Amino acid sequence: MIASKPSGIATGCPDVGAYIACIASYNSGTLHGAWIDLEEIGNIDDIQKCIDWVLATSSEPGAEEYAVHDWSGVPRSMQDEWPNWGETLPLIQAIAEHGEAFEVWHNNAPDYNNDPADFQTDYVGSYDSGADFVREYYEEHYGDALTASDPFSFAIDWKAVWERGDISQYFWGSDGPSGHSWGFHVFNN
User: Fold this and answer.
1) What is the CB neighbour count within 10 angstroms for residue 177?
2) Fewest CB within 10 A of the end CB: N or C in the chain?
3) Pairing relation of β-strands 171-175 and 184-188?
4) What are the angstrom distances between the C-alpha of 17 and each of 2, 24, 117, 143?
């Protein structure tokens, strides 16, 4: 008896999802699978219910294996044909919570930047550019010195300070993924 369709099974390609394909069907020359809406999934058990449903609804006898044959809205660094859902799902949920900034942070060092708690410690904020961040930083921390040199403060090349200054020992930053213009994200080193 086939269990009822789990709520995580999408009717089409979701904004954030994984296409689960039945390997037995694939090997027999047919395509059988379903999209899982990863924004609707609460935990790994929910994912497993969706996978079990895909396999149970396959017309191939002995359907026991699956693979992820497509991803939607998931950064390339997290895509795998056989993901470790225990590692992947929290990262996807962190992107849903923190947005593009988490994706930028994770993509900078995918083998290291995996703990959402570390992200919250590392993230400084979003700015129009590195130059805007460093100008704001220096005004906040060294405003008196800048005011004292007011006649010359207009001549400070904030872009050069960001790109070649000592501040890079303490901070790093990056634009969002290509095609997005949501800001320049700055992180503690």
Assistant:
1) 13
2) N
3) antiparallel
4) 23, 22, 23, 47
- Structural Rg of the chain based on CA atoms: 23
The whole-angstrom separation of Cα 66 and Cα 23 is: 5
CB-CB contact of 131 with 184 (8 Å): no
From the CB of residue 125, how many other CB atoms can be counted at a distance below 10 Å?
Answer: 13
Q: How far apart are CA 134 and CA 97, in angstroms?
A: 26
DSSP assignments along 77-136, one per residue = GG--SS--HHHHHHHHHHHHHHTHHHHHHHHHSTTT---HHHHHHHEEEEES-HHHHHHH
Q: Quick check: 101 and 185 in contact, CB under 8 A?
A: yes
What is the C-alpha to C-alpha distance for residues 95 and 97, in angstroms, rounded to an integer? 5
pLDDT tens digits along 18-64 = 999 999 999 999 999 999 999 989 899 999 999 999 999 999 998 99
- Tell me: pLDDT of 112 over 90: no
User: Where is 69: in which H helix or E strand?
Assistant: strand 66-72
pLDDT band at 148; cut points 50, 70, 90: low
Nearest to 133 by CA among 146, 144, 124: 124
Which residue do the tokens 């900078």 mark?
108
